[in-house]
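R.M. (postdoc): so does anyone remember the format we settled on? I'll just put the structure tokens first.
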């Protein structure tokens, strides 16, 4: 246990040192760096709670916690080089994160196999679907990071939706409209998470967060989604139309069923 604690403390230092090096005197730029730094630390915290609730072994729990801390490590180079967090307009930040971990050697104290698990999960955390070629441990770590990440992203977005003046970077510069794109509705009817490339409006984007319920892997995450009333809060920011209400009801029913049977 002592070994894992020391390892985590050392990696927290490395993470802070690396991310702090991106701060400048530009307030707008620094706001984005801080947003991603805080998000990474909160996903890390979230993953500690998930690992405890799901009773993972100390080794797996530690790997999940490290992978959570570093999952968005590509975001810092992304915003520096491209001035955007929109992957399709710049670079895949998961893949870039994998490269950053390799070139900075921040994981050098870990055994080779564990480094590979963290790098693979960093690359995979933002992909629409999971690779079928992962070994058992990589799959478990990646699933946990994806859940913890989603829980914290929803917290950030709900805070943003509640503001009068929404930060355009956070909502990917999407048009603020009540319209839902037919492509997004088609995904919902198939009980799938929509493809980010199909988002045309902010309502598409908000609905997509509700469909993340289909993509949550652990009972803890589903329970927390419900406990924090994420479903109700997202719905309260969506257009109140019979079509949207019926689609949302189906997703909420799925959440209830999953919590009961998982
Ligand atoms: Fe990410």
């Amino acid at each position: 246990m002592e070994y894992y604690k020391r390892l985590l403390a050392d990696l927290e230092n490395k993470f802070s040192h690396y991310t702090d090096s991106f701060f400048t005197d530009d307030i707008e730029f620094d706001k984005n760096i801080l947003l991603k730094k805080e998000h990474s630390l909160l996903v890390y915290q979230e993953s500690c709670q998930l690992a405890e609730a799901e009773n993972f072994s100390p080794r797996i729990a530690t790997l999940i916690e490290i992978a959570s801390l570093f999952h968005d490590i590509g975001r810092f180079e992304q915003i520096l080089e491209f001035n955007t967090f929109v992957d399709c307009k710049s670079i895949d930040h998961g893949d870039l994160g994998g490269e950053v971990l390799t070139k900075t050697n921040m994981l050098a104290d870990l055994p080779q196999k564990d480094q590979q698990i963290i790098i693979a999960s960093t690359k995979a955390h933002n992909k629409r679907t999971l690779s079928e070629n992962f070994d058992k441990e990589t799959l478990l770590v990646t699933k946990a990071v994806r859940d913890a990440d989603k829980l914290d992203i929803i917290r950030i977005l709900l805070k943003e939706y509640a503001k009068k003046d929404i930060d355009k970077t956070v909502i990917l510069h999407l048009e603020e409209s009540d319209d839902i794109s037919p492509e997004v509705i088609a995904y919902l009817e198939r009980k799938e998470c929509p493809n980010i490339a199909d988002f045309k409006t902010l309502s598409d984007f908000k609905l997509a967060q509700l469909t993340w319920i289909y993509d949550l892997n652990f009972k803890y995450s589903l329970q927390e989604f419900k406990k924090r009333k994420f479903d109700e809060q997202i719905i309260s920011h969506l257009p109140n139309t019979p079509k949207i209400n019926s689609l949302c009801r189906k997703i909420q029913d799925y959440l209830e069923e999953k919590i009961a049977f998982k």
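R.M.: ...and that's the designed sequence above, right after the tokens. Also worth knowing: The two ends are 29 Å apart (CA to CA). The CA atoms of residues 63 and 114 lie 7 Å apart.
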